[in-house]
Amino acid sequence: MKEKISFTENKYMITLIFVTSLFMFWGIAITMGDVLNKHFQTVLNVSKADSGLVQFSIFGAYFIMSIPAGMFMKKFGYKYGVLLGLILFATGAFLFVPAADAESFGFFRIALFVLGCGLATLETVAHPFMASLGDQRSSDRRVNFAQAFNAVGTMIGPALGTYFLLRGSYDIPTDGLDSVKNLYIGIGTVILLIAICFSFVRIPTLVDPHKSSEEVDLDAVNIDVAPDKKLFQHRHFVWAVMAQFFNAAAQGGTWAFFINYGHEVMGFSDEKAGSYLVVFMGTMLLGRFIGTFLMRYIAANKLLAIFALANVVMCVIVAQGWGWISFAALLAINFFFSIMFPTIFSLGLKNLGGHTQQASSFISMGVVGAAVFPFLMGLVADTNIATSYYLPIVCYIIIFLFGAKFYKVQHEEGVHR
């Protein structure tokens, strides 16, 4: 009879709920950037390629901050890592006030960079934190469950952004920038309050991945199965970093120009396209709940490979610009994208033991793909928005290869698990 693996333990429930909420908050912040992308095109008269620098500022911070965040987490623990991320998040939000007053796109990018440093810290900490709250064999389910609430955040973000930023037309830039300023004051205040509340949460003792035992179940606990290997000698980890880079690249480009696609291909107003962005994020929420359920019956790596191939097909259809057929495929991309980020993350951390925190830093740093790709897609989108959706296909091919073959953990003897 197959052993039933628990989702978590009662002693971890309060902490798990709090950490899960963090996934939602950074989902709000990241998708708000996609609304800002279009908003800055309107109120600051920047091109699509230049507006892609919004994503460059946010996700570029991941490249800079992920390793320091991992070092900080290893030295001071998960709790203080979360607090550092929340404080940086709030600071970046409050910097929108002087940026709006200066009417400077460059200043906004600095604010977004600081905010992005906070998001990078939270993501670096939260994924291994969530994975450690119970049996490692159910870590894929826990991380995907938490990422489902990240998907809730990605629906709230564009809903807030559309309501406050895209509803009206602005006669002068300051009208549109005042709305940005007021919105981010509210966001910064909420995040600061969350940080204060989290400072009072007591974290239960977690399994120490630095320790090993001859009696431990290597499948259940995150023990390094090849302790003589350096981190980058673990092939599954290296492939996870690459897969996350291309996964974030595909996400960043697809999300950044969703509103433009709705406006230029479908003929929607900016406000209507923004409202469909909420539906777009809803498909990801649906995909994460369904994906978490399916992982009870289908291995996480196999589901990842299947969803990656599905998105290759969706991108081809989107690139044709066939009206509602292509728009439906665009909505479906986010459904199939849903499980990719958390599944790549949890597969990449398997059986790394004492390397886990450092590995989390590098996998988080792979998110820098979302800093580069929107600019490249923007260059094509300035000519033809539909054609630009051919570019993510190469990303999904890399993800397929990881899920189909290169996810496997190698023991010292070279045996795959």
UniProtKB/TrEMBL annotation:
Membrane topology, as annotated: Multi-pass membrane protein
Any one Gene Ontology molecular-function term assigned to this protein's record: fucose:proton symporter activity
Keyword Metal-binding tagged: no
Domain Major facilitator superfamily (MFS) profile span(s) in chain numbering: 13-411
GO cellular component term of the entry, any: plasma membrane
Tree of life domain: Bacteria
Annotated Pfam families: MFS_1
Keyword Cell inner membrane: no
PROSITE patterns assigned: MFS (PS50850)
Keywords tagged on the record: Cell membrane, Membrane, Transmembrane, Transmembrane helix
Primary location recorded for the protein, binned into one broad class: membrane
Cellular localisation: Cell inner membrane
InterPro entries on file: Lfuc_symporter_FucP, MFS, MFS_dom, MFS_trans_sf, MFS_TsgA-like
Segments traversing the membrane: 12-33, 53-73, 80-100, 106-131, 143-163, 183-201, 237-261, 273-291, 303-322, 328-349, 361-381, 387-407
Protein name: L-fucose:H+ symporter permease
Organism: Sphingobacterium corticibacterium
